[in-house]
Structure formats: structure tokens, C-alpha cells
Amino acid sequence: MKVAIIGGGMAGLSATYYLQQLGQGAIDYVLIESSSQFGGKVSTIRESNFVVEGGPDSFHALKTAAVDLCRALNLDEELIGTNTEARKVFVWSRGKLRRMPEGVMLIIPTKITPFLKSGLISWPGKLRMGLDLFIPRRKDDSDVSLADFVRRRLGKEALDRIAGPMVAGIYVADADHMSLKSTFPRFLEMEKKYGSLLRGIITQKLETARSKKKEKDSLNTPGKAPNSNFLTLRGGLQRLPEALVEKLNPRSLLLNRKVETIRREGTTYDLTLDDGSHIKADAVVFATPTYVTSDIVKGLDSKLSEKLKTIRYVSTATVSLGYRRREVEHSLSGFGFVVPRSEKRKIIACAWSSTKFNWRAPEGYVLVRAFVGGASAEELAEQDEASLLQMVREEMRDSLGINATPILNKVFRWRKGNPQYDVGHEERVAEIDRLTTQHEGLYMAGAAFRGVGVPDCIADGKRVAQLIAEKAKTLVK
Ligand SMILES: Cc1cc2nc3c(=O)[nH]c(=O)nc-3n(C[C@H](O)[C@H](O)[C@H](O)COP(=O)(O)OP(=O)(O)OC[C@H]3O[C@@H](n4cnc5c(N)ncnc54)[C@H](O)[C@@H]3O)c2cc1C
């Protein structure tokens, strides 16, 4: 069975790797990538002993697909966690950086004392959040936006100063459009089960405390990943696609080739590439952004093509700046800060990369990384590099008091790089799935569907590989 995988980001690479593992020689594959390297958004620059991430800087450890893959690729020794002693996040609010109360879990405080002491939320705002204990749960299961949910349960201030900037920093999304069901189903379940987020958190904390000892014991087991919720690799996250490529058959990997169209020819598919060449395959995996897939499948199925277009993408950019430590007065003691939209600043977040992880800057230097654009300020991310750099340097001056000239700067622009999980996302994906399965041998995977995180994309690639491997087995029989 011949399989063509289109798009060599994490989803496409994962699909290819697991196809090779599961196919046991029964599957012949080709992976086609339009750019000059594999990895897609996972892109690291190593220069002058700085390790600069252009896209993701880490992945969630509790979603195990990425850790499992690292282990399978013998990357265990290279896994590093965040520097737990510096686990502080700040909010650039009303002119200065204010500490996010310790223990805030995306939208809800999990520790009472630091929350009560924090100046980030006013006293009326804190009281309003406390009303969550008494507000009745919703009666129906329909999807809602994160903003509607947080406003109703915890109030406007919690949305503006905690939940809004946190999701803008992580999902580069607008809380007013973001589907709660597809991004934080856990909070919907918590409301349903406990009738209140705060009550849910308290109950879950008690349960966690009980299992803590068990967890502590397991930390000392050799070969375990570091004890951190977020992990990366010492030489940068791009080590992961690099290690994957090393395991694949080099003759089956095509770089700098763009797939333009797909046609059905009897029981096979015929792909046309931008150099005029053709590839024939029994099965095709699309691991491309959905607007790209939409163009490719237009001639095959106009309905599917239209549906794929309904997933919205926004543009973002990251600007990394390296400084001499002695030229930066700020302690940079923390993971960085997020910026509420109401502040009308030009960045949405800033990671203090060399504090968050070791091995990111050489001795005597620091590295910070600003995020620009996202749902509410796409045009800022689409500026030319020089303007982006100038803008971010001004923001670093106003937020961190850094006037020094950076000794290193790296700009990554991700035009239409971030899929948005708008309210109703689940139904949109179900309809795309339904239309796709009408074409035997056609599959789709990637950030647009079942999770944007690196582990989600790896899991989605693996899911598709399993489906194809099952199919291949039945054909052999
Ligand atoms: C700035 C930024 C920060 C992020 N931070 C994190 C983070 O910290 N943690 C985390 O877990 N996630 C993070 N993410 C999300 C995560 O990186 C992505 O969701 C994930 O890497 C996407 O993988 P993918 O394979 O679905 O798509 P992509 O990586 O976009 O891969 C798609 C590939 O398809 C190729 N392609 C496009 N058109 C064609 C064509 N016609 N023919 C052939 N190939 C084609 C592209 O060149 C690309 O390589 C971040 C994303 C961004 C942009």
C-alpha cells in the first residue's frame, strides 16, 4: 500500500513515523513538504550559544504523546523541564508588571492566600469571583465562548485581567470567540459536576494531595521525564523533528515540493506537485493548514473544500532578543508576562526564555521572547521584520526598562499560522470528518482539528497512522 503524507510539520512527521512503525513493511510512504526543512512550526535557531525558538518552546507533559515519542526516539536524556523555582508569571496591568497570584490555573485561583493578597484584582473583583460558589450551573450542554463562561461565573475583571490575557498568550485567541468545549472542556465538566469552579478546584486539590506521595516516589525512578508540567529538549524543540527524520527512509522524504491538486483515478489518488511531477498513492494524509488543504481538494470535493475554509487562522510573530546580562537591570525572575487587551499595548506576551529554561542563553547573557499579533492584532504581526523589531524593543523598554541594544535578534513571522477554535468547533470538525470519510483512503490530521499543542498534533498523526495500518492489514489478508 502506498501512502502520501502532505505537510512535514509535527502531525505529518508523526503520521509518517508511526506508519513506518505500524506498517511493518506493508506500507510504502512518501512525505512531501513545501519548505526547506521538516518540523513546520517547530523551528529552532542555534546561534552563538543561544537557543532561540521560533514557534513552540515546550510541550505539555501530561498529554503524553510527545513524551512517549521522545522516549521512542531515545531523547529522554535531552528532556528538560521549566525552572520550577522561578515559576512566576506577571501581568502588565495599569502601567506595571503585577504578579499573577500564585496557583492561578488559567482562569481560576487554586490558592486562596496569594490570591487575596494580590493587587491584580480589586476587592469588588475578588468578591465577584467568590460568587462562583453560588451561581447555578448551566442547564444545557451547548458550546459557549470562554469569555461568556468566565464573565458569568467569575466576573468581568477575572476575564479582563486573568483569563483573557492567559488565553491570548497561549492560544493567541480572542476569548469572545473561543470555544470552551474544544479548548477547556475541563472547566465545563467542573461546572457540571461540582456546580462551581472554586468548589471543583478545592475538591480536586484534596484528591491530588492524597495521591501526592505516590507521585513523589515515582519521581526518583530512573528514566522518568523531569518533574515539570512543561518540557522541552536541551538543544531546542527542533531536536524532535530532527530525530524523527533520522528514523525515516531518506528516499521517501521530499523537501521544497508543494502539492497543488489531487485527483481520483480509479482506486488511487494522483497528486500534482508544483514542479509538474505526479505522485500516485492508495491513501493520502493531509497534514497541512486547512486553508491549504481546501485549495488542494477543490477539484475533488467542493463541499469539503468549502467546509475546510470555515476554520479561521490568525497571524502571529515572535521576536527574540538576546542581551548582555549586565545591561539588563530587571531581575527577569519568572517565566514572563501576559498583557490584557485593555492595556492597548503592542505585544500580547513576553517569555523570559533564559529564566524559564536552562541552556537558552550563554553565561552572562539573557534571552527574552515577545509574542505579537493574534486574534486582536494580526496586522502588527504582518509588519516587516525591521518594524517588528523596533516595536518590540520599545515594548521591552516600557515594560522591563531595557534600553540596551540586543546582541542577537530573531524574528519569526507566522502568517495565518494559528488555527482558531471558535464556538461550534466540534461540529465543524465532525462535518469535515464526515465529508472526508466519503473518500476512501483520505485522512486529515493537524493543529486545526483536535488540539493545537505539539502533543495533540503528534497524537492526531498517530491516530491517522493507526487507521491506515489497520486498513493495510485487512488488504494483506
Ligand atoms: C508562535 C507559536 C508558538 C507556539 N507555542 C506552542 C507551545 O509552546 N507548545 C505547544 O504545544 N504548541 C505551541 N504552538 C502550536 C504548535 O506549534 C502547532 O500547533 C503545531 O506545531 C502544528 O503542527 P502541524 O503539523 O499541525 O502544522 P504545521 O507545523 O503548520 O505543519 C504544516 C506543514 O505543511 C507544510 N505545507 C503547507 N502547504 C503545503 C503544501 N501545499 N504541500 C506540502 N507541504 C505543505 C508547511 O510548510 C508545514 O511544514 C505554537 C504555535 C506558534 C505559531
From TrEMBL:
Keywords: Cytoplasm, FAD, Flavoprotein, Heme biosynthesis, Oxidoreductase. Coiled coil: none annotated. Pfam families: Amino_oxidase. One of its GO terms (cellular component) is cytoplasm. Its cofactor is FAD. Pathway: Porphyrin-containing compound metabolism; protoheme biosynthesis. It catalyses: coproporphyrinogen III + 3 O2 = coproporphyrin III + 3 H2O2. Involved in coproporphyrin-dependent heme b biosynthesis. Catalyzes the oxidation of coproporphyrinogen III to coproporphyrin III. One of its GO terms (molecular function) is oxygen-dependent protoporphyrinogen oxidase activity. Residues 10-468 form the Amine oxidase domain. The keyword Flavoprotein applies. The keyword Cytoplasm applies. SUPFAM superfamilies: FAD-linked reductases, C-terminal domain (SSF54373), FAD/NAD(P)-binding domain (SSF51905). Its EC number is 1.3.3.15. It is found in: Cytoplasm. InterPro entries: Amino_oxidase, FAD/NAD-bd_sf, Protoporphyrinogen_oxidase, Zeta_carotene_desat/Oxidored. This is Coproporphyrinogen III oxidase. Belongs to the protoporphyrinogen/coproporphyrinogen oxidase family. Coproporphyrinogen III oxidase subfamily. Its main location: cytoplasm. Gene3D superfamilies: FAD/NAD(P)-binding domain, protoporphyrinogen ix oxidase, domain 3, Protoporphyrinogen oxidase, mitochondrial, domain 2. One of its GO terms (biological process) is heme biosynthetic process.
